[in-house]
Design brief:
By secondary structure, the chain is α+β, with helices and mostly antiparallel strands. The chain contains 4 helices and 5 strands, in the order E-H-H-E-E-E-H-E-H. The chain has a 5-stranded mixed sheet. Helix 1 crosses helix 2. GO terms for molecular function: acyltransferase activity, transferring groups other than amino-acyl groups. It holds the Pfam family Acetyltransf_10.
Length: 145
């Protein structure tokens, strides 16, 4: 990828371009205030641009000490298959190597069919033994107090 006209940077994308990239991969868009706040509270960002156009991004969220979560590893479909996701993950792994201390946990949710990509970085699938399969819940409405 070093020969391609792409620029890698550790700055967060703005909320509108984050939403645009999410839409391109079928994840839908978010309220811009929510997206902006989420991006601002991330621990680490890495983006890849062609000129000013955002073509890939990834970030790490968590408490910055014990728990780290790889989030939003996403590449514009027009640019997939060029090693961009690998460059994003290499940057994430470099950040984690400097930041995560022994005893920390790094998690992620892989999109269906992408598990092999993350296995290359040492991530394990939770098949139920010994840790359980893992679970998540998506908030689709405002929760009552």
């Amino acid at each position: 990828m070093s020969q391609l006209p792409y620029k890698i940077d550790e700055k967060a994308p703005d909320a509108a371009e984050f939403n645009s990239l999410r839409e391109k991969v079928g994840w839908g868009s978010l309220d811009l205030v929510l997206a902006k706040s989420s991006l601002e509270h991330s621990l680490y960002h890495v983006v890849i641009r062609e000129g000013v156009r955002l073509i890939g991004m990834a970030r790490v969220v968590g408490d910055g000490y014990l728990y780290f979560y790889v989030q939003d590893v996403v590449v514009d479909p027009k640019y997939q298959g060029q090693g961009i996701a690998s460059r994003l993950m290499d940057s994430i792994e470099s950040y984690l190597a400097k930041t995560a201390k022994p005893g920390a946990t790094v998690g992620l949710f892989a999109a269906r069919g992408k598990e092999g990509f993350y296995r290359r970085y040492g991530y394990l699938e939770r098949n139920g033994e010994p840790l359980g399969k893992g679970m998540c819940r998506f908030i689709r409405h405002t929760l009552s107090q």
